[in-house]
């Protein structure tokens, strides 16, 4: 009798622990928590407030890389130690087809990117990656368009980039892009970028406007070219086993909150980018907006080598290059 009672109590304790764990969602990202300056920070806070208001679930936020970098967050979401991860480029290391969204000069504007990622293409990519990774894409956000800065001269065309050294992420796609534009890519760790710019190890770098302003790169860089070469996508991912363990009502609330969170992140990013351009100009940067003809020259120089590289890398998944191109063409006709 005593053994039976002990076993019953132990089973009840384990069940209670499992229930408590299932009722708490751990949401992690690498951005600051401040919703006014951080797109992921804003998305996380909106998600938490909506889910907790509509369900009995608790959402714990882990911002600023407190649980690791993006690779660690994705791995944690896969093994269930993290429920939800909001990540960007690193997801391509787990679902290779994601890399196609980084093909340079693919998205002509943010509304076109939103239409594509929130439409049939984004839904199909999400389903493909769910099968590849076990992670369900709840929604998409954005890290924004990336632009070139440098300390040598204004850049109006690929010819203006010849002979310049640009810091890029240590990702082959970015190296292929910069080489295609006629410049020399330098893979430098993020923490070393300010020193590399200040000492002239590199002439320039590329990032969204909010990152350029937030890191005071105007202290080392005189010229900003708004060429929008890559549109960065944020992926709001949840461990699918955890998602399936939720009730239908909880799942619906989580999906609604995720869409609002992704949209909020986009809005914060767009606001900070627009405000950042004005602030960078106030700080003395000379800002160049390429014409449509100049943008076409950038695209013609950078896109072919990157697409060729990706076709080799992706193999059977190379079809996603054409699927994205078709989706962008359709969306562009509406904007």
What's the overall geometry?
globular
Radius of gyration: 22 Å
CATH topology: D-Maltodextrin-Binding Protein, domain 2
Structural class: alpha/beta
Distance between the termini: 73 Å
CATH class: Alpha Beta
Largest sheet: 9 strands, mixed
Helix content: 40-55%
The CATH superfamily turns out to be: Bacterial extracellular solute-binding protein, family 7
Query: What is the number of strand segments?
Result: 9
Percentage of β-strand residues:
15-25%
Give the name of the CATH architecture.
3-Layer(aba) Sandwich
- Low-pLDDT parts are 1-21
Order of helices and strands: HEHEHEHHEEHEHEHEHHEHH
Notes on the protein architecture:
The chain has helices at 2-22, 39-54, 70-79, 110-117, 120-133, 172-180, 193-199, 209-214, 240-245, 248-282, 292-314, 319-332; strands spanning 24-28, 58-62, 84-87, 135-150, 165-168, 184-187, 204-207, 223-239, 286-288. With 335 residues, the chain is α/β, with parallel strands linked by helices. The chain has one domain: Bacterial extracellular solute-binding protein, family 7 (D-Maltodextrin-Binding Protein, domain 2). Strands 1, 2, 3, 4, 5, 6, 7, 8 and 9 form a 9-stranded mixed β-sheet that branches. Helix 4 crosses helix 12 and helix 6 crosses helix 11 (292-314). Residues 1-22 form the signal peptide. It comes from Vreelandella salicampi. Keywords: Signal, Transport.
